Amino acid sequence: MEQPRRPPEYILEVFADPTSIKDVVQGILHTIFFHRYFPSLRPSTIEVLDLTLPFVADPELQTLIDTRVYQLVRQLSSTTSPNSSVRGQIAVQFFEKRRRKAGGLGWFTGGTKTEEEICWEIWRLEVTLATPKTETERTKVTKAMEMTLQKTALKIVAIVNQNKDHIPPITTSEMNPFPYQINLNPRIEGWAKTMGMY
Q1: Are strands 44-48 and 9-16 parallel, antiparallel or unpaired?
Q2: pLDDT at 41
Q3: Measuring CA to CA, which residue among 87, 90, 124, 119 is closest to residue 11?
Q4: What's the farthest any 2 CA atoms get from each other in the chain?
C-alpha cells in the first residue's frame, strides 16, 4: 500500500497583547485564506496595527475564523504564566476530495462511491500572548507586534508565491473545491497526521 505523501506545513509566529490579539490572529488567518481560498471573491482589506491586510468576505468562513479566534483568546486569557506570556496554536488545513478506490469489498459497501479528504497543506500559527505590566513594556510589545505582524504577512506572501506545485488540480464545479479546517491547539503528529485526522 502506498504511503500518503506528507503535506507541506508552514509555521508562522505571532506576538500580541490582550487588546490586539483578536485582530492580529484574524488578520493572519484572512491573509492565509486570501491566498488559498479558490472561489471567486471581491478583494477586501482590513487594517490591523496600521498594516493593510487582505480580507475574505465570506460569511461562513468569517464565522469559523471568529469562533476559533474567540476560543483561542478565551484559552490564553484563562491561562496564567509567571513570565507574563502564554502560547497557543491554531492550524489551518486544506484538503482535496478524492474518490476512494474500491477494494475487493464492493459488495460490502453497497456499490456506492465514497470520497476521502486528503490534506494537501497545513499552516500552523503559533500565538504568543504578552501582557505588559509597565508603559515601557507596553511600548516594546507594540513595536514587536507591528514588526512580527508585518514579517508574518510577508512570509505568507513569499510562501504562496514559491510553493504552488503541491496544490491539487480543481476537478469539481463546487463553489469551494478544497474543504478546510481550522483547529485550535492541534496535535499534528504521528499516524493521525498521516491520516489527516486529529
Answers
A1: unpaired
A2: 75
A3: 124
A4: 71
Dihedral sign, Cα of residue 146, residue 149, residue 153, residue 156 = positive
At residue 38, does pLDDT exceed 90? Answer: no
State the pLDDT at residue 195: 41
Sheet of strand 85-99, all strands in order from the earlier edge strand to the far edge: 9-16, 115-130, 85-99, 180-184
- State which amino acid sits at residue 123: W
Buried b (16+ CB within 10 A) or exposed e, 49-83: beeebbbbebeebbebbeebbeebbeebeeeeeee
What is the tens place of the pLDDT at every residue in 107-157? 555 555 677 888 989 999 999 999 888 999 999 999 999 999 999 999 999
Helix (H) or strand (E) holding 32: helix 21-36
> Rounded to 5 degrees, what are φ and ψ at 92?
-110, 125
Determine the Cα–Cα distance for residues 178 and 172; give it in Å rounded to an integer.
9
| C-alpha span between 75 and 171 (Å, rounded) | 39
Strands 115-130 and 9-16: parallel
Dig out the grid coordinates for 29 from the structure. 488567518
> What pTM, to 2 d.p., does this model score?
0.82
